[in-house]
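MODEL INPUT / OUTPUT PAIR
PAIR INDEX: 1
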Amino acid sequence: MVDRLANSEANTRRISIVENCFGAAGQPLTIPGRVLIGEGVLTKLCRKKPKARQFFLFNDILVYGNIVIQKKKYNKQHIIPLENVTIDSIQDEGDLRNGWLIKTPTKSFAVYAATATEKSEWMNHINKCVSDLLSKSGKTPSNEHAAVWVPDSEATVCMRCQKAKFTPVNRRHHCRKCGFVVCGPCSEKRFLLPSQSSKPVRICDFCYDLLCSGEMTACQSTRSDSYSQSPKSSLNDVSDDDDDEDSSD
């Protein structure tokens, strides 16, 4: 079906409408062979709180942005190549239901659909697009992904030293390797993570020691374990859209 729609007038018109909704600040989306598979509003778990975002699934990219005027205007456009994407379902907890993780080497975050059916459709379509892309390119799925940030609200004290309490003066920071919420003294070091930034980024002392010793997988597994204990954990390592004040931390 994708091949049949690729060069159709209806598909070209739909993509053009999406382009226009993002305005001049958005990147051009119309290229030969690109097909708009579907679109919808998903709740994205951000550093401060969950927020509604408009998502567009194409056969090769995932695009999302802030909703300015529903179905008419969006900003803060983000484009994620699907070849680098892996997704994992998240268990329901409290008000956060029907969610899954979208993971890439540069950006990882949780999203939630309105219903279980909608979640299933999104995940199935994303997996199908990724599978088709990898099949055509002969590439293997990415086994590296950025940490999913633990939301600020999940940590009242530093997740590393377990002592420092967060206050307006003693601010929260995020380790770009494990995603933990940590205090300043526990995250004074910087390390170059090429998939995330061209400059060294903030990481906690624990991850710094593991990275320097070459035990990177141990660091990753530690973060994964924590996520299974706290399925509400969120964001990516590089600040997301306009969600996060003090997002450089």
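PAIR INDEX: 2
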Amino acid sequence: ISICRDLPNIEVITFSVNGISDLEPLHQCQNLSELYLRKNNITSLEELFYLKTLPRLRVLWLAENPCCGPDPHRYRMTVLRNLPSLQKLDNQAVTEEELSQALVDGVEITAPPARRSVENGWSASSAAGSATEPESELLSCSLEETNRTQEELDIKPVPRDKYSSFCPQETDCSCKKRNNVLSAILLLMKELDAEGLEIIQQTVARRLQAFQKKELQEE
């Protein structure tokens, strides 16, 4: 997520299912309008402090994070009190009544969260948390998760038959890694102009030719 510090003009970000716990790198993305952070490791709603400075943020998906807590109403009211410009939260439209109620039931966040020690750009507590996660969580990867990410990017979902063909006999971990890399590449492509996209197209064509040649040799 630290790459966002170098992408001030990015408009849509999807980091769902990525173990993210720190939103500080996003506070400079002044053109950000849609942010998808479903199913990460955001433990405190104080992380919203870094989103309060984003004037164009209209869509936020924060569900399935520890910060949502056991009280859905309190969680939603707190988010809306601090981000009153949102039009949609967790795929549910925001109403004028909710915004008014948020002033009463929501908690205002006025300071950033107490930051943990950070080494090499990674939060120490986040790394420790990842190490203790159940193996099933670390290796979770499915066609549904892949398509959910692609839907957030407004990309046509992958057909089930095609998914099975490009992910044969692979571990869930390697498949999940591919999906994360794919999402990152698609996001970065939004920052490229026509010349940059042509370079990407040429590079992809060469890579495909190399893979096809390798497959013919193996046959």
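PAIR 2 NOTE: The longest helix spans residues 194-218.
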